[in-house]
Write a structure and sequence with these properties.
The structure is a homodimer of 213-residue chains.
Chain A lengths: L5 H19 L4 E2 L1 H8 L3 H11 L9 E2 H12 L5 E6 L3 H11 L6 E8 L2 H6 L5 E4 L3 H8 L3 E4 L3 H14 L3 E4 L13 E4 L2 H18 L2
Parallel strand pairs in A: 3-4, 3-6, 4-5, 6-7, 7-8
Antiparallel strand pairs in A: 1-2
Chain A binds a DNA duplex (30 and 30 nucleotides) through helix 3.
Amino acid sequence: MNKIPFPVIHRLSYVFEILNKLEEQGIKKVSSAQLGKYLGQTAHTVRKDIHFIGIAGTAGTKYDIAGLKTLISRHLGFGIPKKSCIVGLGKLGSALLEYTLAIPQGAFRIVAGFDSNINRVETIHTPIELFPAYRIEETVKRLQIELALIVVPPQQAQEAADRCCDGGVTGLLNFTPTVIKPKRDGIFVRSIDISGELRILAALAYTTTIMNE
Amino acid sequence: MNKIPFPVIHRLSYVFEILNKLEEQGIKKVSSAQLGKYLGQTAHTVRKDIHFIGIAGTAGTKYDIAGLKTLISRHLGFGIPKKSCIVGLGKLGSALLEYTLAIPQGAFRIVAGFDSNINRVETIHTPIELFPAYRIEETVKRLQIELALIVVPPQQAQEAADRCCDGGVTGLLNFTPTVIKPKRDGIFVRSIDISGELRILAALAYTTTIMNE
DNA sequence: TATTAAATGTGAATAATGGAACAATTTATG
DNA sequence: CATAAATTGTTCCATTATTCACATTTAATA
C-alpha cells in the first residue's frame, strides 16, 4: 500500500463527513467541484486526494456518494468505530464528553472517562462508565480503548498520556498546551491548543495589517 | 516587510509561549536545539524560522530569551492583547470562557460573550459582560473586538460569523464542524473541529497499521 | 594564548505540496 | 445519431516548505 500524505488523510476525513451529511439529505451523487466548495478547496485537489486511495467514479459521471464513502472507509478505517476515552473531567472535559457523545458517526465512540478527583467520578451523570485516574491503564487494556482525549491540567498531561500508552492506545488527542511525547512508536498525537490558535489568529491579523502599510 | 510563511508564524507563536514559560522559571538563555526539542522540531527549523523575522542572537551564544520575545512580539503583534469574544455560551462555550479567562498572557483577552438564549446571558456568572446575540454587531463595533470564538450549533455558525464580520473582527476561531466563509477579505478563519481531529487520529492509526502488514 | 566545542546565521539542495492542463468518458440534447 | 457539455483520472509543472551543510562567532579550557 502506498503511503498517503498526511494532508490528504486530513482532507479525506472531512470529505467523509460531508458525504455523510449529503447522504442524510437523500443526495446520491456529488461532483469534485461541489465537494471542493464545501471543503474550501479546488476541484483539482479533491480529485487528486481521491486518486490517492483509488478510483472512485467514472469519467463523465459524478461520484456515487455511497461508493465513495465505502472507498474512504476502507482506506481510513472508518468502518468499526474506535473505542475512545476522556481523561480529565473538569469543566472542559465534561463539556467535551457531552459534545462527543452527541456526535453520531462511525469513526469513534466514547466509552469511558477518567479523573483523579473521586468526587467528580461519582457525581457526574453520563451514560458511559467513569473511573478514577489510577485505573486508566487497567481499564484501557480491558476495554481495548484505542483513542484518548487528554483534558487534564498541563502539568499532568504527560503522565496521563503515559498511562494511556501503557494501556495500549494508538492515538492521543491533546487539549493541553503542553507538547506530549508518546511513550512508544506507532502512537499518534494531535494537539488542539486553544490559546495557541488564538495567538496564531492574532498574529495573522497583525502581520497582514503591517503588510498593507 | 517580507511575507512570513504561515507555518513559520504558526511555529513562532508556539516558540513565544515556550519562551514565556522558560522566563517564568527564571531561565535567561535558550538554544535552538532546546527550543526544537520543546516544539518537536529540529534546531535547523527553529533557527530558520527566527531568521525570517530578523537576527535574534549572535553566533556562538544561545538566544537571549527576553530579546527573542521582544523580536517575536514585534513581528507577530503580541504586545497589545487583542480584544476577543465568545459567541455561544452552551456547555462547551461556557467551558471555553472559563478556560480562556484563566490564560495569563499577552496575545488576546476575552471581553464579551454572546448567546441567543437570554436565560443563559442572565444566569451565567463571569467577570466579563454578556449580551444577547442580536447585539453582536453593535457590541463588537463599540468595544472594538478583533477576534471571535464561534461555539454555536453548526447550522448557526455562518450567521454568527457574519454578524461578527459586520462588527469588524479580523479573526474567527470556529469550533463547529462547518466550513465558515468570512464575509470580507482580510478576515482569517481557523477551525478547531474536535470530531474531525478524532477521525483523523482514527485514520492515522489505521493507515499505519495497514502499512505495517 | 591557542585550541576545542558549541552555537548562530544563511545559502543551497532536497522533498513535499498544490495547481493546472488535458485526454478520456459519459450524459444530455437537438 | 452526432455534437456539445460536464466530469473524472492522471500526468506534469511551479511553488512552497523542510532539511542539510557550512562559514562564522563566541565561550570555555588547557
